[in-house]
Design brief:
Its cofactor is pyridoxal 5'-phosphate. With about 350 residues, this protein is of the alpha+beta class. About 25% of the residues lie in helices and about 30% in strands. Strands 1, 2, 3, 4, 5, 6, 7, 8, 9 and 19 form a 10-stranded mixed sheet that branches. The chain has a 6-stranded mixed beta barrel with strand order 10-11-12-13-16-17, surrounded by 4 helices. The longest helix has 16 residues. The structure holds pyridoxal-5'-phosphate.
Length: about 350
């Protein structure tokens, strides 16, 4: 670690907001901790990071990010354990993905270890904000956006990296209804689907809203070219259990976000001796597996919920109803294993949890 990069100046707010928090009713992403971390990029290099009181960021009306979308983010969580420890889950994977998103959006990447260290430091400063309740967590939102005060279309010369934190309640996703989307597109080959960049989410709002109007929580995105292959479920990765094999779209496609949760589920399946196939997954194959009874489970995977069980798949004019998983099914066992791992209730042989 480069010594000069981890010297962080910390300034505190005059009063803490923590006593105002209603810990039993935490709306997602609307409650913020006392501090945030800020680091600016200018004159060709990242400047010293600072931890400052949480608050608004001044903005020039021509600020490049709001016009042309040079903006990327990450989403991760810190969990508290009964012994008072706070842990991050595989933060190095978020660091790697963050720097890959930077590269795709022509933004200046920085050291992955520094990313983890900055997240760790901020969480340490606001450690008493990590909810203690089982299932609850501190959501961590690191992001970078272009800050040039000019509307020429080119990569910004200046950027701001910020991390803020939100205590969030237990997110037990209700079982979801999804619709196979055959017209709108989330990501096209050669596009930015692999990057966690703001525009991808803006572009998905309209098709998602149409799906919701028809009773579906999320869309099952298919490939942009033929709409024959399933890629993701809303803002989660998609997994199927077919005849005892975990089947999930291959991350070789640059239309698919490389999720930490999905990667972890694949690792867990490997550990447990469950066969895994990471490859193209066609709509036709899934429909056939439902019809012949070999589709055992379908679920989305992401940091927010870990697992979102899919109970209904809309396809063209009809719906397929799937049975809810039982305790013995892979998705439920894997979720419990990961919950226990984060809570420190089971061994962590792979070193996935980093104690802050
Ligand atoms: C963030 C995200 C995921 C899930 O990634 P995790 O690292 O598991 O949280 C999947 N798909 C999309 C489009 C995402 O933005």
């Amino acid at each position: 670690m480069k010594q000069d990069l981890i010297e962080i100046n910390i300034s505190h707010p005059t009063t803490s907001k923590i006593s105002q928090v209603d810990w039993d009713n935490l709306p997602f992403g609307k409650v913020f901790t006392d501090h945030m971390l800020v680091m600016d990029y200018k004159n060709g290099k990242w400047q010293s990071p600072e931890i400052v009181p949480f608050g608004p960021i001044p903005m020039h009306p021509a600020m490049s990010a709001i016009h042309y979308g040079q903006s990327i983010f990450e989403g991760m969580k810190a969990y508290s354990r009964e012994n008072g420890d706070v842990v991050l889950f595989r933060p190095e994977m978020n660091a790697k993905r963050f720097m890959e998103s930077c590269e795709r959006l022509c933004m200046p990447a920085f050291d992955e270890e520094l990313f983890v260290e900055l997240v760790r430091k901020l969480v340490e400063v606001d450690k008493n904000w990590v909810p203690k309740k089982e299932g609850a967590a501190l959501y961590i939102r690191p992001f970078i956006f272009g800050t040039d005060e000019a509307i020429g279309i080119k990569p910004s010369d200046t950027y701001k990296f910020v991390i803020f934190l939100c205590p969030v309640g237990a997110y037990y996703s209700q079982p979801v209804n999804v619709k196979i989307e055959e017209y709108y597109t989330r990501a096209a080959a050669g596009g930015v689907g692999r990057a966690k960049t703001a525009g991808n989410y803006a572009a998905a709002l309209y098709p998602a809203k149409k799906g919701q109007e028809n009773g579906y929580h999320q869309l099952l995105w298919t490939d942009a070219k033929e709409h024959k292959f399933i890629e993701e479920s809303g803002t989660m990765n998609i997994c199927f259990m077919i005849n005892g094999t975990l089947v999930t779209p291959s991350e070789d496609e640059d239309t698919i976000l490389r999720g930490t949760t999905k990667r972890t589920l694949v690792d867990v399946a490997d550990k447990w001796g469950i066969p895994v196939e990471e490859r193209k997954v066609s709509v036709e194959e899934i429909v056939k597996a439902i019809e012949d009874g070999t589709l055992n489970e379908a679920f989305g995977a992401g940091t927010a919920a870990t697992i979102a069980t899919i109970v209904k798949i809309g396809y063209r004019d009809g719906d397929f109803i799937l049975s809810e998983p039982t305790e013995d099914d892979f998705s439920m066992k894997a979720k419990k294993y990961l919950d226990d791992l984060k809570a420190g209730k089971t061994e962590d042989p792979d070193g996935w949890c980093l104690v802050v």
